[in-house]
Structure formats: C-alpha cells, structure tokens
Description:
The chain crosses the membrane at residues 27-48. The chain is α+β, with helices and mostly antiparallel strands.
Amino acid sequence: MTRPETEEEDKPLDPSIEKVRRKMIRFMGINLGLLFLALMVVIAALVYKSRITEPQVAAPAGDIQAPAGQQIEGDIVLPVGARVVSQSISGNRISLDAELAGGERVLFVYDIAARSMVGRFTIRNR
C-alpha cells in the first residue's frame, strides 16, 4: 500500500515564499535565543540573591539590647527636689513625668541607648 502522491508534496515552494519562510525561521530562532538568554539571566539573579548572606541589621527601635548576661545600668539626673509622678517607656526612650520643687510639672525624655537626655517639656495650663 503506497500513499498517493499529491501535487503539493512534489511541487517545490515558490522562491519568494521560500525566502519568507527562511526569514520567519531566522526570526523565530533569534527570538527563542533572546528569550532563553533572558531566562538564564533571571535564574542567575535568583541564585545570586539566594546565596548572599543577609547583612546584620541593627535592633529595631523597640528593642533594648544588652550584651549577653549583663544588665543595662545608668543614671538619669533630675533637678534637685524633683519627684517622679509617672514614667513610660517606648522603644529605647523613657519619659519621666516629674514634679519639681516649686510645683511645676515637667516631662523629661531620656534615650536609653545613647544614655542622654533628649528632651525636656514643661507641662502647664493655658
């Protein structure tokens, strides 16, 4: 059993159509090559990013860090005769609501990490 031959199989392509076909194949080959190259660049970038060690980041503002096995110690100096009414802590900062000897209310803000006073606010009525 042989297959009947058709005219299209035997007939060579027209030279102009053959020229267009070759251009299309070349165009497809170049585009597939560029696509493959772009894919390899993306994969290389992903591998590179996954292998790099993460840089050591400083502790967030909410964390007071002390060396292992040690306590944080220091002095907060308030004016003579001041009485601490209340205190609150947020991150590395502590605020002290104090009443001075003359009855004046003052809010002191102290930075624990820097171990320094960063603000003084007088509390008064208008």
